[in-house]
Amino acid sequence: MALSEKDVRGIAEYAKIALTDDELTQMTSYMNDAVQMLEPVLQYDLPDVEPTFHPIGSLSNVMGDDLREPERDLPLGVALENAGSARDRYFRVPSILGEGESE
Amino acid sequence: MAQSFDSLTAAQIAAGVAAGDFTATEVAQASLAVIEAREDGVQAFLQVAPELALEAAARVDADRAAGKPLPPLAGVPLAIKDNMNLVGTRTTCASRMLENYQSVYTATCVQRMLDAGCLPMGKANMDEFAFGSSTESSAFHRTNNPWDTERVPGGSSGGSAAAVAAGEVALSLGSDTGGSIRQPASLCGVVGFKPTYGAVSRYGVVAFGSSLDQVGPFGRTVEDVALAMNALTGAGHDPYDCTSQDCAVDFTEHLNDSIEGKRVGIIPAFMEAEGLTPEVRSAVERAAQELQNQGAELVEVDLPHLDAAIAAYYVIGPAEAFSNLARFDGIRYGYQEEGCANLSDQSSLSRAHGFGAEAKRRQMLGAYLLSSGVYDKYYYAAQKARTLITQDYDAAYAKVDTILMPASPRTAFKFGEISDPTQMYLSDLYTISLNICGNGGISVPLGLGEDTQLPVSAQLVGPAFKDRQLLTFARALERGFADAATGAPALSVAPDFAGKGGEL
């Protein structure tokens, strides 16, 4: 079943990418083309085949020593220098509950 | 006796610096002069780093003056794909999102090249966040193919490939998630190597598909690529990347071994695939003949599940890309939309205006594929296809030592020629399955195609962590297509740029 513009708007909200109406139309067309291209993979959903999630099969969680590595700490100024907005020692963000453009 | 530095391989530059024929500073200046003279035509770089290059060169020269032993790539100019962090440079991923991002640490792969003596000449253009096959999705400018500046260099590591093909540097680093080293290498007529997943640390490389991404080198000779691999893997496992494997060997050790008696696989279906142009097909057939002439046995092999590779990739890749690029929320780094009333709007608008069209498309596709109900349908099927493709390769490698195939179905295309994104995805036909199973692959230039007079190549692929053996086959191919009189590889610096500036 093809994705509608409403579906794609929902995905865009989840993905946190604000799309204009024109972009939404183009994106819907792309999404349907792309999903169509993925169809061949569905025939491989076979019950007797185990999925491979990673090319190195034997990977397991790696736990680091619970130690500080001061030489790897980012100095405060370096950590903040790429932020769009900072104040004192902090990243600065708008209100979480502020009144926005979206409903 | 002046010569342009572009006539020298990385091995020759390092030897010349070590012997005192020229200093590393003279090499850095020559490379900067070449970049100055040629960059208008190529536009391979997003940022040139003369201060860093000259500082690195001065350290090499001081070490030599002090009688210290020089590292193996001392004085060799290097270009670095702009998704790799290097302190003192921006790391933009060719995206407005990271236009002003200053690297706060240095990627392990870059550091290891610098430890080996390379001079960091600058950061190379790419498709935005590595999403693309032509470098056209860079937010900043296009990169021209040095063999025909009206054509694309391939992608996503198009700047890295073009910088080497235009003779601006001797070596460069790229990353390959679906063919992003091997395809631009093919289109630009240079050697491009994607090692086995895990061979090179990904620490400090901006992530696209974490189970697919692998860093590798470009050079104009297989030997130079082998020397770069020594630098990238020599220090062993990187504790900052848990997928990094200890696979240090001397990649130059068996480079010139005979391939007599070795078995080379050919996949007949690949040679008949739709979209493969006659000139590329004929070049790969000549490559097979050449390997046979050198004593290898050609064996037909079958990879029955390869049909699923592109579909599986465009499930796994976008899903991983969406997860990785979710971190760009405009708060700690990256483009930040001003004047938003709340945090949610700030994130959505920062991402909408920071990312370009293809980056948005891939993330939207990934978001959809990971959404409830859809995830079970596509994601598991793709990971099962991955199992089957890996088993296909394992079965093939029980019969053969390497498989020969095209790297790109065609030579370089014109800007704008492929405008449909899903059509562009098909240019990864021959490269993508290796990222799915994690094996190594290398594109080796074979000369110019008989129809387009543009570079054509063959790809050799091998079993996981048999990368050194793969380079032996690549060298055999390079040797077979070399100039009979001089022994020079089939292609060197693109003729419109060769010899311009940078005398040593």
Number of strands of chain A: 2
Oligomeric state of this protein = heterodimer
Strand percentage of chain B: 5-15%
**Name of the level-1 CATH class of the largest domain in chain B:** Alpha Beta
Hey, which two chains have the biggest interface?
A-B, 57 and 73 residues
Mean pLDDT over the residues of chain A: 89
Structural class determined from secondary elements of chain B:
alpha/beta
Distance between the termini of chain A: 29 Å
Rg of chain B: 21 Å
Corresponding CATH architecture of the largest domain in chain B: Alpha-Beta Complex
User: Helix content range of the residues of chain A, please?
Assistant: 25-40%
* Number of domain modules of chain B: 2
Shape of chain A: flat
Average pLDDT score of chain B: 96
Report the helical percentage of chain B: 25-40%
Structural class of chain A: mainly alpha
CATH superfamily label of the largest domain in chain B: Amidase signature (AS) domain
What's the structural blueprint in terms of helices and strands?
The complex is a heterodimer of chains A (103) and B (504).
Chain A: H1 5-15, H2 21-38, H3 76-81, E1 86-87, E2 90-91
Antiparallel strand pairs in A: 1-2
Chain B: H1 10-19, H2 24-42, E1 45-48, H3 50-65, E2 77-81, H4 108-115, E3 119-124, H5 158-165, E4 171-176, H6 182-188, E5 191-194, E6 214-219, H7 222-233, E7 263-266, H8 268-271, H9 278-293, E8 297-300, H10 309-325, H11 343-354, H12 357-369, H13 374-397, E9 402-405, H14 421-425, H15 432-437, E10 440-448, E11 455-462, H16 467-480
Parallel strand pairs in B: 2-3, 2-4, 7-8, 7-9
Antiparallel strand pairs in B: 1-3, 4-6, 5-6, 5-10, 9-11, 10-11
Helix pairs in contact in B: 2-3, 4-7, 10-12, 10-13
